[in-house]
């Protein structure tokens, strides 16, 4: 990454965590972030665009345009209901003469998507002492990696971090996280495999308190949202954390694989019921996987995306910017 | 696994039921509902279009329009079309004519390759083969460690090395298997994004290094519209032979399975249905189709029961039941065997109609309740288990405190058991009619 890119990166993260922004000007930073997102989401250029380009190309809108738009949105996993809702809104605007060309439609589409995903910039303010962030999700969504990258970002901003390895189920999950903790220099709280995850979470928060840490990141075991017993266990982990600090957990983030289809709604709903989600981390949004289900989750459940990840590299996880994201995915110009 | 789709289709057809003959617009309405359900089930859009066109064409034919039971006719057509799309028969993983058979696992990050590799190894062990696992995920931290732990759990040797040369590790793994007389090698690889050309090239190098008998693509059942693209990308890069569908025990509607099969022609070889390492089942397209239509999955249930219950034991038990000499010991053993088949909610879900009944009556199958019953019986002495009638008040209190339950719960279990024994005695004497209207046993 270029030095300018690094600065932009750093600034975006400082903003996310509600930390004082460095002295540099805002405009170049925004552009840097925007470029990065677009790069991540469009390499190689394989977004929804080929399909959308065809729709937006004609100067005039035809009845077929709407059907094609509908297909394009469904193909992006936005879901039938949200798709109908979006198409209807755009159609209404066209009937009132505000959309007359393909170019108008393109802009109106990504703006409508952005408006549905967020009304304000994503924030994870570090207001707690320490701020406790619980990371939850189904198996294989990328929880452990997300914890590792978050820890690294916080460390870069000179924050003191404690990581709690509460995934005591999956073989070697603790070892995987230990590697990340070492990389970021975070204090690592662990017990043996099979230990009570609530106890690990409790220890991590207590340890964060004693050390005067800024943030405690708690990794949990992957579980399918329909596994009643495991969801109850998660409820307990959240409750146990609250015994150390009634305000904790300050953030509960659902890690959601961008390749997920309509099941993502069920994930968000049931995890929200068990642990009261504050946001979504959309991982593996690489261009093929568009993560359109996140639009439906925000629309139906009001849970916003806070972070978006597009790959394995550390810099592939970024604070979520709804406009940049919507534009990268739903605009043929990228 | 196709619960939601099942519910939807039943909704459509209950609307049509009892109205006699259909009009063309009725059928259009049903098709719209089917289209919606399939899309919500993540069946890919081109496949949905193909399916609904085919179904509508047949539904508008004389066989449905003039039928007195048009809903059943449509259900039949949908079932046939779905089954046809998913492939006709249960496809087995091909084995090498000259051992060892080499299986290469490939897939996106987080699809469940490592767990699936271990499940596959366990599956072949239970078939009397001697597998070996090779850890070639050199990218994710501690991936090899994870495979090593899983290998130990199932008693299968794992070849692992430090270093990042995946093709070389794979080749040496196969050599080690040959030397050790193993007849099956399962190679776990790193997860990759389908658009990451570098990683796809690495996978191709691993393949070239070992020349696998087959390449299995591990696919998450929760995958959305990208499933076909992903499968095609892997098929193009490394020539995939079949698909293992994972995480099917959740409420994922699993349309991905249908799409991948329909578009790429790749057979679904296995499905993963749980966290435990024995939760891997062969895929049966016909059963899946009947499952979509709410017919339950009795065949899978029967197979599961046969795999877990010893025939001799079952006969001895039957004798006891008929003689009315069933003890709490037998009951406990019976319960343990049923539970070996998997979580009760999953086992019961295979019984036709159970799902809708459970939903209507708001029944929740709670495995913890069974845990409590087990705990109560475990807290009894052997003679109490054989002669529950000797359990008096003070014994009840001891059992309750020993099992962490209450005296009421112990009482409930004992009285239910007594009723069950009485009932079974009547059955044994051929008094089957007496069963109807009787209170049910646990």
Task: Report what the structure shows.
The complex is a heterodimer of chains A (334) and B (442). Chain A is of the alpha/beta class and 334 residues long. Helices cover 52% and strands 13% of the residues of chain A. Chain A has helices spanning 3-16, 26-42, 49-56, 63-75, 80-95, 102-117, 143-156, 173-184, 197-211, 228-244, 263-275, 293-301, 322-330; strands spanning 131-137, 161-166, 187-189, 215-220, 251-257, 279-283, 305-309, 317-319. An 8-stranded mixed sheet of chain A has the order 3-2-4-1-5-6-7-8, with helices on both faces. In chain A, helix 5 (80-95) crosses helix 6 and helix 11 crosses helix 12. The longest helix of chain A is centred in the N-terminal third of the chain and has 17 residues, at 26-42. The model of chain A is unreliable at 24-33 and 42-48 (pLDDT under 50). By secondary structure, chain B is α/β, with parallel strands linked by helices. Chain B is built from 21 helices and 8 strands. Chain B has helices at residues 3-16, 24-40, 45-59, 62-65, 70-85, 113-126, 143-154, 166-179, 197-210, 227-238, 255-264, 285-292, 298-308, 311-323, 328-340, 344-349, 354-360, 367-378, 382-386, 393-403, 407-428; strands at residues 101-107, 131-136, 158-159, 184-189, 214-220, 242-246, 268-272, 280-282. In chain B, strands 3-2-4-1-5-6-7-8 form an 8-stranded mixed sheet, sandwiched between helices. In chain B, helix 1 (3-16) packs antiparallel against helix 5 (70-85). The longest helix of chain B has 22 residues, at 407-428. Chain B is flat and about 70 Å long. The two termini of chain B are 26 Å apart. The relative contact order of chain B is 0.10. Chains A and B meet through helix 4, helix 8 and helix 11 of A and helix 2, helix 7 and helix 10 of B.
């Amino acid at each position: 990454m270029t030095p300018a890119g690094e600065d932009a990166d750093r600034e975006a993260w400082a903003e996310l965590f509600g930390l004082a922004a460095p002295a540099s000007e805002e405009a170049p930073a925004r552009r840097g972030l925007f470029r990065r997102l677009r790069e991540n989401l469009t390499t190689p250029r394989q977004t929804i665009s080929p399909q959308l380009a065809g729709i937006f190309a004609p100067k005039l809108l035809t009845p077929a345009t709407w059907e094609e738009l509908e297909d394009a949105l469904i193909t992006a996993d936005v879901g039938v209901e949200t798709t109908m809702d979006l198409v209807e809104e755009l159609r209404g605007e066209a009937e009132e003469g505000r959309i007359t060309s393909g170019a108008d439609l393109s802009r109106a589409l990504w703006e409508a998507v952005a408006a549905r995903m967020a009304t304000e910039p994503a924030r994870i303010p570090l207001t707690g002492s320490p701020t406790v962030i619980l990371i939850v999700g189904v198996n294989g969504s990328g929880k452990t990696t997300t914890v590792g990258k978050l820890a690294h970002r916080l460390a870069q901003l000179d924050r003191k971090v404690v990581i709690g390895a509460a995934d005591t189920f999956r073989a070697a999950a603790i070892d995987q996280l230990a590697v990340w903790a070492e990389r970021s220099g975070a204090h690592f709280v662990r017990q043996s495999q099979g230990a009570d995850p609530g106890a690990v979470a409790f220890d991590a928060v207590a340890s964060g308190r004693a050390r005067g840490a800024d943030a405690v990141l708690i990794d949990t075991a992957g579980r399918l949202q329909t596994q009643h017993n495991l969801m109850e266990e998660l409820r307990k982990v959240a409750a146990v954390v609250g015994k150390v600090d009634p305000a904790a957990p300050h953030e509960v983030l659902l890690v959601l694989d961008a390749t997920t289809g309509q099941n993502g709604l069920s994930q968000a709903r049931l995890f929200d019921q068990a642990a009261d989600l504050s946001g979504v981390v959309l991982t593996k949004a690489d261009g093929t996987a568009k993560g359109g289900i996140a639009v439906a989750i925000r629309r139906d459940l009001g849970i916003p995306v806070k972070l978006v990840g597009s790959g394995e590299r550390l810099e592939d996880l970024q604070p979520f910017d709804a406009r940049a994201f919507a534009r990268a995915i739903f605009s043929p110009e990228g | 696994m196709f619960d939601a789709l099942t519910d939807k289709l039943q909704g459509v057809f209950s609307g049509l039921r009892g109205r006699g003959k259909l009009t063309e617009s009725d059928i259009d309405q049903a098709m719209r509902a089917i289209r919606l359900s399939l899309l919500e089930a993540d069946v890919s859009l081109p496949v949905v279009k193909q399916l609904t066109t085919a179904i509508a064409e047949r539904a508008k034919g004389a066989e449905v329009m003039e039928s007195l039971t048009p809903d059943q006719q449509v259900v039949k057509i949908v079932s046939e079309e779905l089954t046809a799309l998913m492939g006709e028969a249960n496809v087995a993983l091909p084995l090498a004519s000259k051992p060892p058979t080499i299986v290469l696992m490939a897939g996106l990050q987080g699809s469940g390759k490592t767990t699936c590799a271990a499940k596959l190894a366990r599956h072949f062990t239970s078939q009397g083969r001697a597998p070996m696992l090779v850890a070639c995920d050199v990218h994710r931290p501690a991936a090899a460690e994870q495979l090593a732990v899983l290998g130990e759990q199932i008693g299968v040797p794992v070849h692992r090395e430090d270093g990042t040369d995946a093709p070389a590790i794979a080749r040496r793994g196969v050599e080690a298997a040959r030397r050790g007389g193993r007849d099956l090698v399962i190679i776990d690889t790193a997860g990759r994004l389908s658009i990451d050309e570098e990683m796809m090239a690495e996978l191709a190098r691993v393949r070239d290094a070992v020349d696998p008998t087959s390449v299995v693509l591990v696919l998450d059942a929760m995958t959305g519209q990208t499933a076909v693209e992903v499968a095609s990308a892997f098929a193009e890069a490394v020539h995939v032979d079949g698909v293992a569908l994972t995480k099917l025990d959740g409420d994922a509607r699993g349309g991905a399975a249908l799409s991948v099969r329909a578009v790429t022609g790749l057979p679904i070889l296995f499905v993963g249905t749980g966290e435990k390492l024995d939760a891997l089942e062969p895929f049966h397209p016909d059963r899946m189709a009947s499952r979509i239509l709410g017919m339950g999955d009795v065949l899978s249930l029967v197979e599961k029961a046969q795999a877990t219950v010893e025939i001799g034991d079952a006969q001895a038990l039957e004798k006891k039941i008929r003689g009315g000499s069933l003890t709490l010991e037998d009951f406990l053993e019976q319960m343990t065997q049923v539970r070996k088949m998997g979580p009760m909610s999953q086992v019961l879900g295979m019984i036709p109609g159970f799902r809708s009944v459970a939903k209507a009556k708001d029944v929740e199958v709670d495995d913890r309740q069974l845990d409590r019953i087990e705990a109560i019986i475990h807290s009894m002495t052997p003679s109490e288990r054989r002669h529950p009638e000797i359990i008096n008040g003070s014994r009840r209190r001891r059992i309750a405190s020993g099992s962490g339950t209450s005296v009421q719960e112990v009482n409930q279990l004992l009285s239910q058991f007594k009723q069950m024994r009485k009932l079974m005695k009547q059955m044994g004497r051929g008094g089957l009619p007496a069963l109807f209207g009787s209170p049910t046993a646990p």
